Recover the amino acids of this structure.
């Protein structure tokens, strides 16, 4: 069995935004030499996500508005108990649960085995600082 | 290490519906010959889900109503920016994030290592066309 | 390839609560002897979750309030079709979809390859009875 591990770092200059990280994950799969296996990609921080969806700016705008409706940013101590601890990012921990921590993608014939529109995104919900994403490829 | 890959195709005759695909996944695990390992099952389309829950029609009705409340179908250009691009399925991309893209199931003694009520479903949110699900089994 | 499987049992004395199960998962990884691989942790019951987030009581309070807003407990037959079948836990099946069934964590140099604040939680949404969590470690 082969295994390959990489850590990617992102510093998103916005509180909430989505970054297409498919090229970096494809590069990690190539480096791994794995022909048949699984590729895990996960946010290492708990106010961020990794998810798979469409690279369409209108849809990303819809995700932002929808997530803000479901879990509004509110640094006051009134709405969120977490924001009584000196934090202001309770909303980010909620948004991340909707969008998910990780994706697991099949590797077949040495490549990410994707449907026609699948792209991997880093989802930032508490940005303006460096955060990491882990890529782990295992297989043969 | 053994690896086995299958692609299942579903054409759901409704905009939103859930299909129990456990028998097809069990068949893929048998074909793989894997006794101990992991089985990934994921939607290859970004307006569909694969998830694990109960095969109970009332619950499925509840999921549909709840998801429609959280992310209503609205083909007009007013509500969703994605639907200003010629698409009408922004709601499906949102619903799929709540229900998830994939499941990873343990394979133990040659079988899906399930709790008492676990069943695997394909969740369709923009149906009436053929879409694919990937099953990948790795292990020994 | 090595594989190790464990079943953990939890009996949470509340309808909804979160239990930090990181120590038990770390012990399973040690027992597996895997240095480089993947660790799957999933709820075996469909009204429970396994998820990764922060071990901060205020945040857990926020999760409970937020999930109760998104999918209120209501044993009456009016709100949920599932609760016309003799069940009262339709809300638990909805809450579990938001928080997720499973996590997959990389194992690197024999340890869970975690970011600074990542902790694994069992999320109970229909408690007061024994339920199981599966841990499967594969790798070399």
């Amino acid at each position: 069995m082969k295994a390959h591990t990489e850590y990617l770092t992102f510093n998103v200059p916005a509180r909430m935004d989505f970054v297409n990280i498919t090229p970096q994950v494809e590069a990690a799969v190539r480096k791994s030499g794995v022909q048949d296996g699984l590729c895990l990609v996960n946010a290492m921080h708990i106010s961020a996500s990794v998810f798979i969806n469409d690279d369409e700016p209108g849809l990303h705008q819809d995700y932002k508005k929808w997530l803000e409706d479901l879990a509004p940013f509110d640094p006051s101590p009134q709405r969120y108990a977490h924001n009584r601890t000196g934090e202001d990012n309770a909303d980010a921990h909620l948004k991340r649960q909707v969008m998910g921590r990780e994706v697991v993608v099949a590797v077949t014939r040495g490549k990410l085995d994707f449907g026609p529109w699948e792209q991997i995104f880093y989802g930032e919900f508490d940005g303006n600082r460096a955060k990491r994403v882990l890529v782990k490829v295992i297989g043969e």
Q: What stands out?
A: Chain B touches chain C through 34 residues (CB under 8 Å). The longest strand of chain B covers residues 2-11.
